Amino acid sequence: MPAADVRRRAARVCRRICAHPKSSCYAVRTFADGTNEVIAVRKIVVLGSTGSIGVQTLDVARRHPDKLRVVALAVNSSVDELLRQARAFGVRALAVGNASLAEDARFDGMRKAAGDGMVGAFDEAVSKCAGNNGTSAPSSPELTTVGFGPEAVAALARLAEADVVVNALVGEAGLRASYETLRAGKVLALANKESLVVGGDLIMPLAAQVDEARRAAGKAPAHGPAGALMPIDSEHGAIYQCLIGESEREVSRLWVTASGGPFRGCTRAELTNITPAQALAHPTWNMGAKITIDSSTLMNKGLEVIEAHHLFAMPYEKISVVVHPQSAIHSMVEFSDGSVKAHLGTTDMRIPIQYALSYPQRWDAPVEPLDFTKLGSLDFAAPDENTFRCLALARHAGRTGGTLPCVMNAANEVAVAAFLAEGCSYLGIAETVEAVMDAHERAGVQAVESLEQLEDIDKWAREEARRVIGER
Ligand code: MG
C-alpha cells in the first residue's frame, strides 16, 4: 500500500479508536503473507507495575513498542524499581500507593503533587504531563509527576490520554481503581481478582455501560464482546476466548481448571505443619506470594469461580472446577449440544496479558509453542473440598452473595499475611476465614450498595480476622 494511503487509513482508524488522536498514535502491522493493517497504538496505564503481572505486562509492552505505549505507572512502595521502569519506558505520570513515601529523598527534584486533598491538582498535572509525552524518555527527572496515596493511584486510572488500564494491584485496594477506570470509560484489563469478587455487583454494570458506549462510538470489534473488561487471569482469558462467536444461551457449563497446587492429594493431617516455603513452591505458574498461597489452599480457585460468575453472568451451579495438574488446558466451556471448547497453551502469563491488550487481534509472541507430541497424558480429577476448605467457603460466599464475598476476601488476606509471617498455621487460614464469615452471617449479610460500604465491611472483617488469629 502506498505511504499516503497508509497515512489516510491510519488517521481514520486513529479517530475511531483513540481518545486523543495524533499522528504518532498508529502502527502498521505487517503479516507473514505481506499484507498489512493499520492499528491504533494503545496507551496503557500499569497499576502494580513492579508485581509479577506488572513486570510481565511491561515485558509485553517492550516486545510491542509499535502497538503499546506505557503512559503511567503505579506501585505500592517499590520506589527504586518504579523509577527504573519510568526511565526505561519514558513514563512521566507516576503514583505510589504508600502515602508515607511522599517525603522520600528519592523523589527530590521531581515535581510532586497529590497527598490528601490535592488529588485534583495532581490529576490535572498528570494529564498535562502525560499529554505532552511522546515516545521519547523524559529529558530530565523534573518533568516527571508523582502522586502519593491510594487516591493518586486511582487518579492514574482516569488519565485523559490512557486507553487501557492494567489493574494488577494486589488485594482490595484494586477495587477503587477498577471502578475509576470504568467510570472514566476506559478499557479495564483486570488482574485484580478482588475487583469482581468483592465489587462485582458494582463493576459489572459499569462495564456494561462502557461496552455500550464503545459500540455506539464504533470502538468495539465487529464481532464478539465489546471488550470493556478484559480478564488477565489465564482461566478467564481462556473462557473469554472459548465464548467468542457463541450464544450465551447455548452455554451449559464453564469448567475452570486448577493445577491443584503443591499439596494436591494430601490429607488434612499432612497439611498441619506446612511452612510458608513449602506453600510458596507452585508446580506450574510463577506468581506473587499471596496468589501462590491462595493457589495452594484452593482459595484462588474459589475467587476465580466468583469472578467467572460475574464476568460471564453464569449461575454458580453451572461453574465447575476440575483439577488438571499439567495446566495445559486453561479452562473450558461446555455447550448445550455436548460439545466442549478448551483453550490450551504454554503456561506463560504473558499470553493472557497480551491477549487482554491486543483483543480482538492476536499479536506474535516469542513463546515456546505447545508440542502435543511431548505433552503426554492429561489428567483430570474432582477437587477435594473437604481437605481444601477454602474452595467450599468461596462457593458458599458466592452463592450467598452480597457482602459475604467481601468478608471472605478480607479475612483471607489477613490470614495469608499472618501465615507468611508465621503467625497463623496453614489450616488456620481456612479456619479464620470460616469464623469471620460465620460472624458476618450472624450479624446479617447486606446487599452491595457502594464502595464506601464495602470499605467499611472490609475493615471490620480484617479486624475480626486479626482478633480470631490472636485468640488461637
Ligand atoms: Mg488463575
From TrEMBL:
Residue ranges constituting the DXP reductoisomerase C-terminal domain according to the UniProt record: 344-463
GO molecular function: 1-deoxy-D-xylulose-5-phosphate reductoisomerase activity; manganese ion binding; NADPH binding
EC number: 1.1.1.267
UniProt-annotated binding residues for 1-deoxy-D-xylulose 5-phosphate: 193, 234-235, 259, 282, 295, 300-301, 304
Keyword Manganese (UniProt): yes
1-deoxy-D-xylulose 5-phosphate reductoisomerase C-terminal domain boundaries: 229-312
UniProt cross-references to InterPro entries, sorted A to Z: DXP_reductoisomerase, DXP_reductoisomerase_C, DXP_reductoisomerase_N, DXPR_C, DXPR_C_sf, NAD(P)-bd_dom_sf
Residues that bind NADPH: 50-53, 192, 194, 288
Enzyme type, top EC level: oxidoreductase
SUPFAM superfamilies: 1-deoxy-D-xylulose-5-phosphate reductoisomerase, C-terminal domain, Glyceraldehyde-3-phosphate dehydrogenase-like, C-terminal domain, NAD(P)-binding Rossmann-fold domains
PANTHER family in UniProt: 1-DEOXY-D-XYLULOSE 5-PHOSPHATE REDUCTOISOMERASE, 1-DEOXY-D-XYLULOSE 5-PHOSPHATE REDUCTOISOMERASE, CHLOROPLASTIC
Free-text function comment from the UniProt entry: Catalyzes the NADPH-dependent rearrangement and reduction of 1-deoxy-D-xylulose-5-phosphate (DXP) to 2-C-methyl-D-erythritol 4-phosphate (MEP).
Protein's UniProt name: 1-deoxy-D-xylulose 5-phosphate reductoisomerase
Organism the protein comes from: Candidatus Aveggerthella stercoripullorum
